[in-house]
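pinned: reference chain
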Amino acid sequence: MRCGKKQCYLESLWTFRYNKDIASEKTLKSGEKKGVTMDIIAKISEELGIRKNQAEAAVKLIDEGNTIPFIARYRKEATGALNDEVLRNLYERLTYLRNLEERKETVLAGIEEQGKLTDELKAQIMSAETMVVVEDLYRPYKPKRRTRATIAKEKGLEPLAGIITLQMLNTSLEEEAEKFVDLEKEVTSAEDAIAGAKDIIAESISDEADYRSRIRDLTVKKGRMISAAKDPEAESVYEMYYEFDESVAKLAGHRILALNRGEKEKILTVKVEAPEERILQYLEKKVISSDNVYTTPILQEVIEDSYKRLIAPAIEREIRSDLTEKAEDGAIEVFGKNLEQLLMQPPIVGQVVLGWDPAFRTGCKLAVVDTTGKVLDTTVIYPTAPTTPQKIQAAKETLKKLIRKYGITLFSVGNGTASRESEQIIVELFKEIPEKVQYVIVNEAGASVYSASKLASEEFPKFDVGQRSAASIARRLQDPLAELVKIEPQSIGVGQYQHDMNQKKLGESLSGVVEDCVNKVGVDLNTASAPLLSYISGISGAIAKNIVAYREENGKFQDRKDLLKVAKLGPKAFEQCAGFMRIQGGKNPLDATGVHPESYGATEKLLERQGFTLEDVAGGNLSGLSKTVKDYKKLSQELEIGEITLRDIVKELEKPARDPRDEMPKPILRTDVLDMKDLKEGMILKGTVRNVIDFGVFVDIGVHQDGLVHISQITDKYIKHPLEAVSVGDIVDVKVMSVDLKKKRIQLTMRGIS
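pinned: its C-alpha cells
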C-alpha cells in the first residue's frame, strides 16, 4: 500500500516519538571525531579517594608495562605510596572504563551509519557511566533478529502504529485498520493489521531507554526474590529456600549464590517478583497522553504485552545477572582475603616432618621430609579400616622406626577421609614412645589436585599420587607459600561457591593475591621452584623454567645481575623482578635484601655517610641505622633519591629480608585428640580459623569436624562481615553452644569468654 500524505506525516511523527530522529536535527558528520568526554583519571581518583596526580602516575606506570607488586614496592615516590590493593582496584576500574569508552565509540559509529545519530543522543551516550546505560540507549538502533514487530513493519503496518500512538482518532480503529488490509502482504483483515501495529508499538515501548531504566530501578527497589522447592518433600541443603521470599534490595550475596546453585541443580524454582501494578501505571502515564476512546484500550493492552512479554523477562535476567556478578565479586574478595591469610601463615622451620595422607582401604601414605623440604623416605601403612590388630601394630612399628631414623619431631596430617581415625592412632603412638613428637591437622584441599598434576609428576617422577600428596602435606607446613603456589588457587578450599563463579575472573583475582603474597615475602633465587618464581613480578612461567635451568647448569646465582644471562629475561623483566629475588651469601650483601639494584649506588653512599659498610649489611649490624638519620628530607636530596625510597631502604637494611609471615599466628600443635561426642555445651576450647564466609567462620577445634561461629556470635559489637573481626589462620577461643551428632554440626560462640 502506498503511503498517503496524512499517513506519511503521521509516520514521521511516530519516528520522532520513538527514535528521536527527524530530518531537521543535526547529525554527526561522518568525518567528525567521536572523542570521549569522560575524564577517566578524574573518575578513578574520585571513586578510590586518591589524588588525581596519584591516579595519573599509576595509570602511566601500568601503561608502561610495570606490574602491580613492582609499582607498589618500588614506585611509591610516583604514586604517593599507593598499596597493592588500591592499585589492583585502580587497574580493574581502568580496564572497565576504557572498555566502556571503546563500546561507546562502536555504538556511536553504528548509529551514525544508520543516519540516526542526533546531538542529543550522542550526548546521552557519551555521558553514560555504565555499560547497561549504553546498551539501553543503543537498543532501538541495534540490529535485531526477525521479531513480530519487524515482520509487521515488512507488512507496511508502521503508519497504523503511528496513528494509534498519536491518540487522535475520531473514528473506530477497525475502520482505520481496513485501509491497511493487503493480501499480498498477508494482512488479511483489520484484526491482523491491528495485531501487527500493536506488536510494533510494544517493541518500541520496550526499546525506550528511560522506561527500562525506571522499570529496572523500581524492580530493584521494590521487587522480591521468590524461591520454591520443585519437590517440597525432598531433603536437601536448600531446605531454607523451599519457601523463600526476600526483598531484592536486601538480598545477601551468599543467598544469591545459594539460590543460583539450587536452581542449577533443579531443586529450586527462582524468580524475581516485580511491582507489576506500579510499573504498568508508570508506563500508562508515559505512553497514554490523551483519553481517546478508540486508542486508550488498545494502548493499555499493548503496554501490558510489552511489559510482560518483552521488558519483564529481560529486566529479570539483567537484575539476576547483576546480583550474581555483585555476589561473585563479594565472594571473590572474601576468598582473596582468606587465601592471603592462608598463604601468609608462618613456616615451621628447623623440623623434620612426616606428611600423612590419610585413607581407609588403600592405606595411609607417608612421606618424611627434612628441614629443607627434601623427601627422605616414603611408605604406606594400614592402621585404618578395614584393618586388624596386627596391621595396626605393624603401622606403629613402622612409625617408631621412621621417628628414630630421621629424628621426626612433627606429623603433618591431612584433614580428609580417615583423618579422625589416623589421629587416634597417632595419639596412641605418642603415648608409647619416649621421643617428643607433636602433630598438626592441615587443610589438605588441593593436595590431590597437585599430586595428579603434570608439575607433581615432573617434581616426583618415581612417586605415585599418594606419595606426592603426602610430600605436599608435609611441605605445606614447612613453607605454606612455596607449596600452595603449586596448586590452582580455586582448589585450595577457603572460599564459597567457587565452582559456580566466573572462573576467568576468579582465577585472575586469586592469581593477583598469590602474586602479592609471593612478592611481599620475596624468594630465594637459589632454592625457589619454577611455580614459585613464576609469581614474581615480571617473570612468566617460561622464564621461571629458564631460571631453574640456568641454575642447574651453572650452579648457584652469585649476583642478581646474573639474571640477565637467563634466556628471555631482558632489562625490563630484570627491573621488575630483581628487588624480589634474594641471594644469600652472594657477592653483594645487598642482593640478600629487598633493596632494588637501581638504588645500590644511593644505598652505598648512605652507608658511607652514616659510618657503615657493606660488611655490616652481611653481618646484620644495622639495627640502629634509623637512629643515625636526623633529617630524611635533607639526606634524600643529598643522595638524589625520594624520601619515601630512603625510608624504605633504611627499614630494609635494619631488618634485611624481613619475613612478613613472622607476625602471623603459629599453628596449634597437638598431642591429644578429642572426639565430637566428647564435646559438651559450655566447653571452652582453642581453635584455628579454617574458613571465613559471609555469614560466619569455620573453626577447627581438633574434633575433625569444623564448628561454625555465626556472624552474630563472633563479637559483642555489630559487624557487617566476619573479616572485620577474624581471618583464616587466627587462633581463637571458642565456647561450645550445641552439638548435633546426627547432622555433624557444631555451633560455637566467641562471645562471653573471659
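why pinned: The radius of gyration is 34 Å. The CA atoms of residues 161 and 255 lie 44 Å apart.
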